Amino acid sequence: MDRRTFLTSSATVGALAAPTVARAQSTFNWKMTNAYGPGSPFYVEGPGSPMDFCKKVEAMSDGRLKIQHFAAGELIPALEGFDAVRSGAIEMNAANAYFWAGKIPAAQYFTTVPFGMNFQGMNAWLYHGGGMELWDELYQPLGLKALPMGNTGVQMTGWFRDPIESVADFQDLKMRIPGLAGKVYAALGVDVKLLPGGEIFPALERGVIDAAEFVGPYQDRRLGLQNAAKYYYTTGWHEPSNVTELLIGAKAWDSLPADLQEIVKTAAMACNLESHTWCEANNAAALKDLVENEEVVAQVLPDDVVAELKSVTDTVLADFAAQDEQVKKVHDAFMAFKSEHAAWAAVSEKPLYGLPT
């Protein structure tokens, strides 16, 4: 090849490559809002939190994607992130998909399902059982993309001002409870309330509500719920796991080069694991403190109450699925995977839990 041909060829290659290089090196400055208030562990700050996610993305991308985080009330109210992302006003929002039940009923299955799957099963479904594909199918027509970015693991049934001794005690009870579990409680006569985390304690303290579910010992203690109610129940029936949703505008997502998209996915997956392990590491000590130092009565719901909750859940979910084609598709896929996973868990996890401690 002579010198002129070489220079001509090099110039052509350079001209063709330039747009790709420029796109790959573009920088992006995004905004993320959050459904939870400033300083909230797990939901806002700390290991595996949305703020941690933003730091991870900036570090992994060498500053090419910077995400400014705003807790609830700092830019928009707590539960307006869905509309803000959809309108393009912001690029990202951190919340739970069941907050959008009034807009997309089927979205609730991507947070938690009563008597559903634990952290392991839920993630198996999302990442390898077709769950993510269904989530995309649900959100794409609305110009949205979602990724799992956190998981609390099993949650506590909640705080009650009076003991629960029978199903009759749910009648006319005013309770803060989101998601599909709210439908189950409503079928048992509960007056269901949907309140942001920051509003739970004052409502419980003043008697505006009689009971409240939030997360688990560490998070609940931070809100001071033990100062408003003393009966603390468990089984985790209503939320055997709870997924934090990273909501992204589809146009913003599509504007990212492939390597930045992969960084976002990887950082979200890292936070999904880290947030869960953080919860597992902190809840035991918090529960011990609540019982030993705060006079909290922690106990399991009576067996007959749990049995009735399961029966009502089956009916409520079946009726819910029958009313909406999208819900039915997601419901059927979720339950089919749950059945398969439960068969394995019966061989692997259940015998392990029965071993001496």
Describe this structure in words.
With 357 residues, this protein is α/β, with parallel strands linked by helices. It is built from twelve helices and eleven strands. It has helices at 3-24, 50-60, 81-87, 119-128, 131-139, 180-187, 200-206, 217-223, 250-255, 258-293, 303-322, 325-353; strands at residues 28-34, 65-70, 92-95, 144-151, 158-160, 174-176, 191-193, 211-212, 231-234, 243-249, 297-300. Strand 6 (174-176), helix 6 and strand 7 (191-193) form a beta-alpha-beta unit. Helix 2 packs antiparallel against helix 10 (258-293), helix 6 packs across helix 11 (303-322) and helix 8 (217-223) packs across helix 10. The longest helix is centred in the C-terminal third of the chain and has 36 residues, at 258-293. The radius of gyration is 23 Å and the shape is globular. The N and C termini lie far apart (76 Å). 43% of the residues are buried.
Radius of gyration, in Å, reads: 23 Å
Percent of residues in beta strands? 5-15%
Question: How do the helices and strands follow one another from N- to C-terminus?
Answer: HEHEHEHHEEEHEHEHEEHHEHH
> How far is the N terminus from the C terminus?
76 Å
Main sheet record: 6 strands, mixed
**How much helix, percentage-wise, in residues?**
40-55%
- What integer is the average pLDDT? 93
**How many β-strand runs?**
11
Total helix count?
12
Which regions contain 5 or more consecutive residues with pLDDT less than 50? 3-23
Q: Structural class, from secondary structure content?
A: alpha/beta
Biggest sheet, strands in spatial order? 7-6-8-5-9-11
Shape: globular
